[in-house]
Amino acid sequence: AQSVTQLDSQVPVFEEAPVELRCNYSSSVSVYLFWYVQYPNQGLQLLLKYLSGSTLVKGINGFEAEFNKSQTSFHLRKPSVHISDTAEYFCAVKAMNSGYSTLTFGKGTMLLVSP
Amino acid sequence: ETGVTQTPRHLVMGMTNKKSLKCEQHLGHNAMYWYKQSAKKPLELMFVYSLEERVENNSVPSRFSPECPNSSHLFLHLHTLQPEDSALYLCASSPRPAGEGTGELFFGEGSRLTVL
Question: A92 and which of A34, A78, B80, B115 could share a cystine (Cβ 3.0–4.6 Å)?
Fold first, then answer.
């Protein structure tokens, strides 16, 4: 079985500053990796995903993430955040080719952007 | 209508009421899911339907009863709920049958349930 750890439950940052939201996973097989964003009172929306190929993945709204197999990490970054990026961010993982498995989500990181 | 649509968006019910949440996906997907999202808790997977068959039921109390009449519709019937059942209920769908493919999920906006 796989698991996901989001080390920070809350990350406060000032507008226009860079941000990194951390995600580590555990799996005995290769994985697919995802970041989702949830704005207040809304559902989860896909930000980006790593399926294969280049380890640097670009997503919507200027976010990117880097898959590091040796560190089993998939950290999310943005060079300059906006107030509108205030939301909860979820990292998720699914094992490849391992029989029945669905997405496993982390507990989420609340990004709080202030002026 | 596109994507995954959930109705109602907000629901307030008493503990003795019977109500239903509805989810409809317009994506031609093969699997549908119910998640519960409570404050300060991780997402909880409740039920999974794949090709209209229930394939996962994660120890959910019987006061929650899912129904999947076809591949585009998913219901969650609610009966004699408790105040601790108050939460955001999220519906999702995936293109491939559950467990297959990348596992990518497409979520609806959620139904905010308050039990008095």
Answer: A34
